[in-house]
UniProtKB/TrEMBL annotation:
Species of origin: Pseudomonas cedrina subsp. cedrina
Keyword vocabulary terms for this entry: Signal
Domain of life: Bacteria
Signal peptide: 1-23
Record-given protein name: Adhesin
Pfam assignment, any one: Fimbrial_CS1
Entry GO CC: pilus
Length: 162
């Protein structure tokens, strides 16, 4: 029994000293890679790859309005037109604080998006590819609406054949 104990103590001490030494000299680098490569026939994606990840609508204390957001998209469908809609409809696209909401209006290439797919880029423009703006604007908040409001929703683009 003594031999086992004598053997275990140096082993534990060696294990502890090596882990302590490892922690002192520890250097790490987390690498997360993502590549989203669209097809040559159809795509609708923002020019700024970070758009939509952490956007802020600033509040103007003088006018009582929220600033709008604008993003340019590259859009292409070599086989027809492009339609778009908001998943869940316009009510899904609202700023919400847990009890109250502020409606958002999403306009893509001049077309107000709803729950129903509608043409946002016609066939002649989408075939070679074009750029179109998504503009998001908020309704003017009421005087009683304050605090942190957030929104998370999806705009869907459909390739519609000729």
């Amino acid at each position: 029994m003594f031999k086992k104990l004598a053997f275990a103590v140096p082993f534990v001490a060696a294990a502890l000293s090596s882990s302590v030494a490892y922690a002192v000299d520890d250097a790490r680098s987390a690498i997360n890679i993502k590549a989203d490569i669209p097809t040559k026939q159809f795509h609708a994606q923002p020019r700024d790859p970070n758009f939509g990840k952490d956007e802020t609508m600033n509040y103007n204390t003088v006018s009582g309005e929220l600033s709008s957001l604008r993003a340019t998209f590259d859009v292409k469908n070599t086989d027809g037109s492009v339609h778009a809609y908001i998943e869940g409809g316009p009510t899904a696209a609202s700023l919400y604080n847990g009890t109250d909401s502020i409606p958002l209006t999403n306009t893509f290439n001049g077309v107000v998006l709803t729950a129903t797919p509608q043409e946002v880029v016609d066939d002649p423009q989408s075939t070679p590819g074009t750029q179109a703006d998504l503009v998001i604007s908020a309704a003017k908040p009421a005087d009683t609406q304050n605090g942190l409001y957030t929104a998370s929703y999806t705009v869907i683009f459909d390739a519609v054949p000729r």
